[in-house]
Amino acid sequence: MSEFTIKDRILDEQNIYSAIFCLESYVFDKGLLDTETPVVVKDENKIEFLAQNDLELYYALSDKHNMVLIEKVIGLCTEQLKAMFADPSKLFTIKVYFKLKSYDEKILKFRPLHTARLIDLICMVSILIPLMYDDDYAKGKRSLSDLSKLLPHNFYGNIPSTNVQYLFHKWQTKYKEYSDNVIEHCRTYQKNHNYLTEVSLDIKNFFPSISPKMLYNYIVDKLSLTYKEDPDTLKMAISKLLFFHVQKESIEPWSKFYYPDGFKATDSGLYMNCGIPQGLPQSYFFGNLCMIEIKNILMKNECFKGDAYFYVDDSVIYIQAALEKKIFDERIKKLNEEVAKWCRKSNEASSDIEKYVPINYLDFHKKINYEIAFYEEGKSVFTPIDFADTQYGAIGDLARSVSMTSNLSLNIDEIDDQVSLEKLKALDQIITTEIKEWKEREPKDGNKNNFVSSRLKILRRFKKFFLYRIRLLKIKETGGPNEEMIGDFKKRQLSNRKDISGWFEQNDEDIFQTEYRLIIQKVSKGKAVKFCHDVQDFEKSILQEAGIYDEAMQSGLFFNKDVRAAVQMKSLKHDSYSYLVRWAKENFSGLKELSHDEQIKNCREFLVKESDLNICKMMDDGFERKAFTRFVMMASPEYLRRILNVFYSEIIGVPPSDALTFTKLNYRKLHYTELRIMARLRNKNFDLEKFKAFVNHIDDKDVSNRMVIDLGLLDVLNRFILQVKRPEWVDDLIVTHRLVKGLWYNGSKFLNSYTLHNEEHAVTLINKSLELIHRIDYIVLKDVDYYILFLACYLHDISMVIHPDLGGLSSANGKNETLISELMADMKKNAQAFFKLDLEDRKNSRMKEAGIFIVSVFNKVYEYFENEVRTNHAHDSAKFIRERSNSLLSYLEPALLSFVADVSESHGNDVWDVYGLKSRAKDDTVSMKYLMMLIRLADLMDVANDRVNYHLLRQNLTHLSSTSKFHWISHLVTDRMELRTTYDIPNKDDGELQEKRITETINFDLHLNFQQLTTIANTQKCKCSQCSLSDHCITIHICGGKPYPTCDESSCTILCLWMTKKHEWLIQELIALNEYLFSVDNPMFKTRINLNIYYRNDMKLDPDMFDCVLEYLGI
User: What is the distance between the alpha carbons of residues 703 and 1078, in angstroms, rounded to a whole number?
Assistant: First the structure.
């Protein structure tokens, strides 16, 4: 830090550019950005328009390589920052919008959210970054500043990120970490009772109650030595992030809702911020700084010392004492006294703030009685540890996950496909029952029970969350909101104007916003404008019904502003590649016509310093020789990835983007070398040095790398990147796909009557495995698990393509000796007959008989090897994998390859050897038991007719063994097998729930194109299953429990017998899976499994083929 003063840091163009680079991570409500005032650059001679408004500029700045635009924006920021530091009285001007928050005791409450002009927001972050980070411009490294290092390990909300692409860690990741830790420790303390009480605390109006002067004193005190060479700029910088002018027009009509009761504005028309302005980039970081001292007070013995977890102002603490309400109330009171004492002391501490903040500004804030206090009623509650996780019944984990945050504004694309509509409806039904039961616990005398009220509030938020996701899934399923859905939204959200309390009980501010934004995004522009007016009118009517509306307040309403911006967003888009595409065309378009060898040569040259234009030179000089990009270029792999992605895409003729679809515009074929490079360049987990090493070492002369890619690989490439993530592992999977395709190119070298177990089979298994993971909630995999599973999908049948060792027949074992003895005896007998001349044999029948005998010998020997390969292929494949670790599979990590071999071998193991394994499954380093279960199930589900060819079967039917005929024909009549999950909650006759557990039925749906319902005697009673016949469906109910039940039907259809024989291994697997899931302690779900055989009479199966099936079945 000694090389630069803090002023140098703030005004450095590299710092301002880094603020632009992470723009999307700190503009929390882009709908509040200005949509009316143009952004202009002024000089002595002209005015240049950069954008029509701030919202348009925000979208334009998503292109971080647009040097023309960014250079002008940096110029505007530099000018504004210099003006700020030149005049203590000059402050940023902010606007406040008021978001509907609650309606308590007939009083409508709002959440004030702040924003500013986009240039000012970038300037604020330019000031904030040197306070949060220690950036080394020479090395391109970002480290936490001394101030950021003060944040404790148990703080989770808005934590500074050293990834220059983000100002803070993604809230979704940190919030999950927070909730997971709370749940895990709660369960631990319920077992060991090291802590006896869970305390949940919340602070009243946290951000508006923080004194800016108090924070000023705190930050100056902590950084006085860090920036001792330039204390004046440090103090000026801090003051600029704490004190603001509030635009008079936006705040004047809302003054009584914004400032505390009794506050009177000055006659001069000065309006300033109240507390820390929530919504500005620095607000949450400053909130965390304030919470450091509050946490220290909390940890006093007389307060709530214990194991604590903080998400900004929300906290969960486990304490050793067993509390009663009286003691809890005394501790809360003591806590508030200690916090108030600290606030007073901090505010009254000696300070030179008057030197940096004008007196009249400080006087304005003196009128505001800043006081941080915890809720003593309602939101602050305690729970005995044994009830902390069971107070919501079976929905404990889910309730926590939802209740710990009010930020539910998820995008539709963030909803996992695995969450089905039926499941959400079932969960909603349970939560409705919970609400009903808790409402019955409310006191009848009208007095408020804080604990019951708190539970009801959380449960209602939980219900809102599920209803919201149900609606989003409906929109997703239909491809967009139809008139019925829009009408439903209006009925639910916009028609309930008279019952304000009911609206808040049924809705959530964030859910309401997300749902109307989604509708506006999907409908036509004309409908969006009309819908916008409906939302605005509704918000206005709420204020009118509450008796507080004034026309001047309209412009300050949050939804009024956000919904108008949402309409404008329909015409805007993020395009992070626009400028780079033009740059590549200007510099590299001529390389498209070069040969493959020359293109890879140019790619290598672009990665080293020898060429005129290369990535190393850019890192030294900046992109397009703009020095302000140097730090971000060195610090951000993502910035470099985009440049290299566009460069390589351009020279090989592929449209630049992050999509994993590759179509060459020059009509050349895509080769494996190109795909392997592109897969790394379109993977966000990019590392430049590893990429350089990869490109320099890839053997582009190798015939395998020059092969045209198999298009089937593109079907799973995105799944590799999404699940496996690591570029080197993704590349391993690409190479393995290519290897398996090559080995199976001409089919099995010996088992020519087998269906193919090639790369197509592997791709199907990968997709089926993912489908199983999504449907069976209990199975959770890590990156390494996916990697091992996908490799096993490719390699588990690899021995079947290898010609068997024919010399194995001569080995001395019982089976071989029996076959050899029988054949030799037959040979001796037939040889004697052959050499015995019969002069009367004019037709030379001995030659014919000898020929028939030789063919029979061949068939017996062939059948022997066929059975050997079939029986031992799982073991032999695992052996092949282990033995080729230093040769054919040397590109794979030996340690992980051993796991791949074990998973591959498991698909041939006895079912109970797998399901009986002792393991911690998801807690193990590698979840071997899960992987074994998945590959076995996926393998048994690949039964469709795309694995066989009718004409090939027709030509070779007479040459196949009875077993092969049966399996080929069974494939032929099978269209597909799908997974489908249904959810049900058993009800009593009076409509009440029998139990608060959801019955989850996993349906394995087998779709046939053939029908044969002729009945036969059921002599082969199926164990652990019962079947039933309904309209065009035979359902096999998988049963569990010992003694094992058997099918009690006296007769059976041929189709049922056929399919249960074909899928006998699958049925055994499903029985084991059913028992395993039954043994898993899941208080919320109990699982059932069905195999449903859907049949149609579409296919006219050749009679001789049907005869083959009947013969195999013994009918």
Answer: 52
- DSSP code at position 201: E
Predicted pLDDT at 401: 43
Instruction: Cite the DSSP H helix spans in 354-420.
Output: 359-366, 385-388, 396-403
* Residue 1046 half-sphere exposure toward CB, CA atoms < 13 A: 6
Structure tokens at 611: 């060429």
Vertex 1047 angle, CA 1046 and 1051, to 5°: 145
What angle, 0 to 180 degrees and rounded to 10, lies between the N-to-C axes of helices 727-743 and 688-697? 30
- What single-letter amino acid sits at 407? N
Helix (H, G, I), strand (E, B) or coil at 1049: coil
HSE of 1, CA atoms in CB hemisphere, 13 A: 20
C-alpha span between 1053 and 79 (Å, rounded):
85
- CA dist., res. 840 & res. 571, Å (int): 98
Gap between the Cα atoms of 200 and 192, Å rounded: 20
pTM: 0.89
Are 909 and 929 in contact by the 8 Å Cβ rule? The answer is no
Q: Is the dihedral angle over the CA atoms 617, 618, 624, 626 positive or is it negative?
A: negative
Q: Rounded to whole angstroms, how far apart are CA atoms 353 and 242? A: 12
Cα(797)–Cα(516) distance, integer angstroms: 51
Nearest to 202 by CA among 312, 326, 342, 327: 312
Q: pLDDT tens digits, residue range 725-779?
A: 999 999 999 999 999 998 887 666 666 666 667 899 999 999 999 999 888 877 8
- For residue 130, which of 150, 153, 147, 149 has the smallest C-alpha distance? 147
Q: Residue 634's pLDDT is what?
A: 95
Q: Residue 703: how many CB atoms within 10 A of its CB?
A: 8
Q: How many CB atoms lie within 10 A of CB 1086?
A: 15
Dihedral angle, C-alpha 664, 665, 667, 671, nearest 10 °: -20
Sheet holding 93-104, edge to edge: 107-116, 93-104, 245-246
The sign one gets for the Cα dihedral 639, 640, 641, 643 is positive
Looking at the chain, how many residues does it have?
A: 1115
3-state secondary structure 270-330: CCECCCCCECECCHHHHHHHHHHHHHHHHCCCCCCCEEEEEECCEEEEEECCCCCHHHHHH
Among the listed residues 673, 506, 529, 645, the one whose alpha carbon sits nearest the alpha carbon of residue 584: 645
Task: Report the C-alpha gap between 490 and 534 in whole angstroms.
Answer: 8
Phi, psi for 200 (deg, rounded to 5): -115, 125
What DSSP string describes 633-659? HHH-HHHHHHHHHHHHHHHHT---SS-
Bridge partners (DSSP) listed for residue 148:
none
Position 1024 scores a pLDDT of: 60
DSSP structure string for 546-610: TT---GGGGGGBHHHHHHHHHHHHTT----TTHHHHHHHHHHHGGGGGS-HHHHHHHHHHHTSTT
Q: How far apart are CA 365 and CA 355, in angstroms?
A: 16
Question: What angle do helix axes 13-21 and 67-86 make, rounded to 10 degrees?
Answer: 120
Specify the residue for token string 């305690």.
382
- Give the residues of the chain that fall short of pLDDT 50: 1-2, 391-394, 397, 399-418
What's the rounded Cα separation, in Å, for the pair 611 and 603?
Answer: 10
What token pair was written down for 893? Answer: 């990590």
DSSP 727-794: HHHHHHHHHHHHHHHHHTTT--SS-TTSPP-SHHHHHHHHHHHHHHHHH-TT----HHHHHHHHHHHH
Q: Which pLDDT score is estimated for 122?
A: 98
How far apart CA 427 and CA 856 sit, in angstroms, is 64
CA-CA distance, 491 to 33, in Å (whole number)?
29
